[in-house]
Amino acid sequence: MARRIVAAGNWKMNETPSEAAALIKELVPLVKNDEEDVILCVPAIDIIPAKEAAKGSNIHIGAENMYFEEKGAYTGEISPAMLVDAGVEYVILGHSERRTYFAETNETVNKKVLKAFEHGITPIICCGESLEQREQGITIDWIRQQVKIAFLGVTADQAKTAIIAYEPIWAIGTGKTATTAQAQEVCAAIRECIKELYGEGVSEEIRILYGGSVNAKTAKDLFDQPDIDGGLVGGASLKPEFGQIVNR
């Protein structure tokens, strides 16, 4: 079956609210494409102005993180209900920067995934290996573990709507990109892991993205691979170049 391509931007800690609105207005005509899903995941403070700036366009607004509790004494965190009320449709969970800098674990990612589904938010679930793990030859084993734990307790109906983003840590923000063959190999292994968990039907529906220094030059070859259904784009999503990625 033909899976709908996803071009998702991860803005990380960039753009003030006014800058976000201006950038989205600049991107709206550049990313116009009715044949794929265009998502911009922005800092929490930018969500409302981003939604307003994207109104009437094909751009969907997502969040970069979310906590797994409904409310309470969790200073600085954002709840799923807050995201829903702000109009958020997608949320990035388990990004390697969250794991590295903020001590997120496979188990906390799983809690967030379950809570996102509970609130009707589509999770973009990140996985990826370090350069050391790749050199040790344990990439596939490592990724399979991340995926299996992230999907604990997730139903088949929920799983097929999820998005998985494979991002080799050594390629994030470094200018290095996994070769097309390397990216396809891991994304195929992820799809096989989902097939083992849920069957072929779910594995054929779930969308798997590649992320890690994706740019206008590399996007077409990557997105043309049989098991790569788009990209999670970092720095290039903050530039007009994102339009070239969407309409490669």
CATH architecture: Alpha-Beta Barrel
Gross geometry: globular
**Overall helicity:** 40-55%
* Class by SSE composition: alpha/beta
Q: How would you characterize this protein structure?
A:
By secondary structure, the protein is α/β, with parallel strands linked by helices. The protein has a single domain (6-246), classed as Aldolase class I (TIM Barrel). Helices cover 41% and strands 16% of the residues. The protein has 12 helices and 8 strands. Strands 1-2-3-4-5-6-7-8 form an 8-stranded parallel β-barrel, surrounded by 4 helices. Strand 2 (37-42), helix 2 and strand 3 form a beta-alpha-beta unit. Helix 1 runs parallel beside helix 2. The chain is globular and about 45 Å long. The mean pLDDT is 96.
At a glance:
With 248 residues, the protein is of the alpha/beta class.
Which helices and strands appear, and what pairs or packs with what?
Layout: E1 6-10, H1 17-27, E2 37-42, H2 47-54, E3 59-63, H3 80-85, E4 90-93, H4 96-102, H5 106-118, E5 122-127, H6 131-135, H7 139-150, H8 156-159, E6 163-166, H9 180-198, H10 200-205, E7 207-211, H11 219-223, E8 230-233, H12 241-246
Parallel strand pairs: 1-2, 1-8, 2-3, 3-4, 4-5, 5-6, 6-7, 7-8
Helix pairs in contact: 1-2, 7-9
